[in-house]
Amino acid sequence: MKVVVLGAGVTGVATAWHLSRAGHEVIVIERREAPALETSYANGGQISVSHAEPWANPRAPWQILRWLGREDAPLLFRLRADPAQWRWAWFFLRECTPSRLRHNIRQLVALGNYSRNVLQQLRAETGIQYDQMTRGILHFYTSQAAWSGAQRAMQLMREAGCRLESRSAEECINVEPALASMRGRLAGGSYSPDDESGDAHRFTRELAGLCSARGVRFRFGLTARSLVTGKHRCITGVRVFGQEVDEAIPADACVVCLGTGSSALLHPLGIRLRIYPVKGYSVTLPVRDPQKAYSVSLTDDEHKLVFSRLGERLRIAGTAEFIGHDLTLNNARCNAILRRVAELFPEAGDFDRPLLWAGLRPATPSNVPYLGGTRYDNLYLNTGHGTLGWTQACGAGSAIADLLSGRRPAVDFSFCGPPPR
Ligand SMILES: Cc1cc2nc3c(=O)[nH]c(=O)nc-3n(C[C@H](O)[C@H](O)[C@H](O)COP(=O)(O)OP(=O)(O)OC[C@H]3O[C@@H](n4cnc5c(N)ncnc54)[C@H](O)[C@@H]3O)c2cc1C
């Protein structure tokens, strides 16, 4: 089959890889000049099945209200005259109940575990290098209240199949000695030994190279304008434009992996996705003192930050801001991240040379992505991966390749569209 994959972020490229391996002819359309230049560019780097507690949880509404209007809040709703934002917020609130939390955690852990396995197989098979670290992820807490509050979600994640071990403050320091600077201030933590980290941008670039070597065709600098529909609920192609290009690319099937660009393309077909762009920031610092720098990937839940070691760089990413498609760097928010890093690891990085970045997570209210078919027989969705797109990319790509090839994916997940055969 000739399959057109829309978008060359980590999701689109992983999808192209698996489709090509399944024997399909694949074309990838991307508006930028290279892969992974948008949200997959400088994210937190974590392959974190253990990060399966969605923002939508019973504690979230009160937390968000408390943070409203605080410029440096870890999670900041900037209320706008934007009906899409209000609609999204309404559905977000509906996901905050205990039963929805349990359901969503199950989905995210199942997909995350599956995806991490697929990534490991891909690595073993291809030898792909992307500053990966396979030393687990440690979630640490600096307040007793936050540590106690985290217990319920940890229990749900364990029940769903995530290996997550509780650690005392001293045991956290044993896992990552760089946390010794926080001795006396840590309340406890949880360690997921199977989780990993690595540079999503480097991975996507390398995988795109491997795809090209298999015959996948990348067409950069082209924007998908619309999907061309035929009779009998099917897509016949994609209308694209670029510099001196305006054409329809024929397709036997199409997979939408456009991140925050997905809703606009699908809206005219009557497919309404609840994806809202949620802005996050990252800071990348050169390592200054390797003895003081962490190498186990870390999560600081209270500040909504994750820390990964990418070779000789420290990547710190996170926080969430609901402000539409705006990508400007807000000094107050960047400084809040730098302050926290300096507090935790004062000598680890070179604070004089920070690289600052902002990206838009394609967030659904539940944090569970749209994965599967649509009411059009040959149109598939692999989008809305929110905070976990790097964690889920390889598994989601593999599952879509299975669905499109008429096979049942080996993951227990509520796929959208018609049930898998
Ligand atoms: C601060 C931050 C930290 C994060 N940390 C982590 C983490 O530690 N672990 C984790 O798992 N996830 C993390 N994430 C989430 C993860 O980065 C995203 O979920 C993931 O990158 C989404 O990938 P994607 O391919 O779906 O979207 P994108 O990377 O945005 O790719 C979509 C592509 O589609 C292209 N496009 C859009 N519209 C069109 C169009 N009409 N025509 C042609 N091309 C188009 C875009 O140019 C883009 O290249 C983080 C995100 C942020 C912002």
Number of strands: 20
Number of helices: 11
Described by strand count, sense and barrel closure, the largest sheet is: 9 strands, mixed
Gyration radius from CA atoms, angstroms: 21 Å
Q: What ranges have pLDDT less than 50 throughout 5 or more consecutive residues?
A: none
Structural class, from secondary structure content?
alpha/beta
The helix content is: 25-40%
Bound molecules: flavin-adenine dinucleotide
Strand content: 25-35%
Q: How does the overall form come out from the CA principal axes? A: globular
Terminal CA distance reads: 18 Å
> What do the pLDDT scores average to?
95
Give me a quick take on this structure.
It contains 11 helices and 20 strands.
Features of this protein?
421 residues, binds flavin-adenine dinucleotide, alpha/beta, 9-stranded mixed beta sheet, 6-stranded mixed beta sheet
Architecture overview:
This protein is an alpha/beta fold and 421 residues long. Helices cover 32% and strands 26% of the residues. It contains eleven helices and 20 strands. The protein has helices at 10-21, 60-67, 83-94, 98-126, 144-149, 151-160, 169-175, 200-213, 262-266, 331-344, 389-404; strands spanning 2-6, 25-30, 46-47, 75-77, 137-141, 165-167, 188-192, 196-197, 217-220, 223-229, 235-242, 245-250, 253-256, 276-286, 297-300, 305-310, 313-322, 355-363, 370-373, 379-383. The strands form four sheets. Strands 4, 5, 6, 7, 14, 15, 16, 17 and 18 form a nine-stranded mixed β-sheet that branches. Strands 9-2-1-13-20-19 form a six-stranded mixed β-sheet, covered by helices on one side. It has a three-stranded antiparallel β-sheet with strand order 10-11-12, with no helix packed on it. Strand 19 and strand 20 form a beta hairpin. Helix 1 packs parallel to helix 8 (200-213). The longest helix has 29 residues, at 98-126. It is globular and about 65 Å long. The two termini are 18 Å apart. The structure holds flavin-adenine dinucleotide. Flavin-adenine dinucleotide binds next to helix 1, strand 2, strand 10, strand 14 and strand 17. Residues 6-12, 29-32, 36-40, 43-46, 48, 223-224, 257-259, 261, 265, 280-282, 306, 317-318, 359, 361-362, 383, 385-391 line the site of flavin-adenine dinucleotide.
